[in-house]
Structure formats: C-alpha cells, structure tokens
Amino acid sequence: MAEPKRVAVLISGRGSNMRALVAQAKAYEVVLVASNKPDAAGLQWAREHGLQTWGHDSKGIGREDYDRILSAALEEHRVGTIALAGFMRILSPWFVQRWSGRIVNIHPSLLPKHRGLDTHARAIAAGDEVGGCSVHIVTEELDAGEVLGQAEVPIELGDTAAILERRVLAAEHRLYPAVLNEFVLR
Ligand code: GRF
C-alpha cells in the first residue's frame, strides 16, 4: 500500500532541492530518488548517500509509455507522495491522473506570476521588486495547481538573473522541506 509519507523525489539535474528535502525530512522519508537522466549529478549524490535510486533515460520513449514505466517503479517502492525537484519533463495526463493530488513541485516564482521557464529574467524585466518561489500541487495545466506555500525574496537594483536565481534557490531549500513536512500529514 502506498503511504503519503513515503516520498519519491524526481530530478533531472544537480538536485540541490532534493538534497535539501533529504536533509530536512521530519514527517516524511525519501524512499526513492528518480531521474529521467541517468547521469544526473543529483542521482550520483543520492547513490553515494545510500538512497535508493532509479535512473531511466526518457530519450526516444513516448511520454505516456515512459510515465507508465516510472509509475511502476514508484509503486514498487510504495511511494505515496511525489516531489518534483527540477524534473525537466512534462508529465502525461495519464500520470497526473494516476497520482492525482499526490504530486508536488517547486517553481522559482511567486505563482501565478511567471509560469514556465526563465522566471528570474522575466521577473527582472517586468520590474518586480519581489521575487520568490512556490510549492504547488501538480495538475494537468502547467504550474497552475493549488499553491501550498511561498517564500519571497527582494529583487535588488542591478540584479542579474543569475544573482536572483541564487537568492531564490536559497529560499527554495528552506521552503520545500517545510511545506512537504506539512503536506504529508494533511
Ligand atoms: C530550481 O530552480 C527549481 O525551482 C526548478 O528547477 C531548479 C532545480 O534545481 N523547478 P535543483 O536541481 O534542485 O538544484
């Protein structure tokens, strides 16, 4: 039986949010780190730290076909909550329905502002004085599900996208574990 407190973290790259989720787990346990990029740096880190990992290249596989393979791996580990952390793939409607209400994501903007990519450059270009990040439930519409928590950071005059990204990322590392520790209990 799937248990809400058994969390799988899905990554595609460096996995700094995944590391924060592992380090600050209180109410949940990270039972699997999964990636669509078998050579993702975060996967290597997870392996070295004794976590269960799953790496399966999504290249050349149909979206839903891949998601069914991924879903089977999650079921095998009795996962009850899926935390996307820099998972650079759009999930199929089939997958989102299969895990309805059990998938969360961290997005580097104050949703509903700046959905999609290049959020920091767009926040600066828009003249926003405040930026930040949001943890939300994943639904079929991109970056549009219920917001579970947000953290704000100031946008300073002269900030570049890279500078703002660093500031927001530090906030992500505090926000995501805090929200997930609550979410698995609700
Ligand atoms: C973060 O900025 C997150 O908000 C976005 O992708 C990035 C992932 O970074 N969804 P990391 O792999 O967790 O370091």
In short:
By secondary structure, this protein is of the alpha/beta class. The chain contains six helices and seven strands, in the order βαβαβαβαβαββα. The chain is globular.
Question: How many structural domains does the protein architecture include?
Answer: 1
List low-pLDDT spans.
none
Main sheet attributes: strand count, strand direction, barrel closure? 7 strands, mixed
Q: What is the succession of H and E elements?
A: EHEHEHEHEHEEH
In total, the number of strands is: 7
Percent of residues in helices: 25-40%
- Helical segment tally? 6
Shape: globular
Strands of the biggest beta sheet: in what spatial order?
3-2-1-4-5-6-7
The fraction of residues assigned to DSSP E strands is: 15-25%
The mean pLDDT is 97
Named CATH topology: Rossmann fold
Describe what this molecule looks like in 3D.
The chain is an alpha/beta fold. The chain has a single domain (6-183), classed as Rossmann fold, CATH 3.40.50.170. The protein is 35% helix and 25% strand. It contains six helices and seven strands. It has helices at residues 16-23, 41-48, 63-76, 93-98, 119-125, 161-183, and strands at 3-11, 29-35, 53-55, 79-84, 103-107, 130-137, 147-154. The chain has a seven-stranded mixed sheet with strand order 3-2-1-4-5-6-7, sandwiched between helices. Strand 1, helix 1 (16-23) and strand 2 (29-35) form a beta-alpha-beta unit. Helix 1 (16-23) runs parallel beside helix 6. The longest helix has 23 residues, at 161-183. The chain is globular, with a radius of gyration of 16 Å. 5-O-phosphono-beta-D-ribofuranosylamine binds next to helix 1, strand 5 and helix 6.
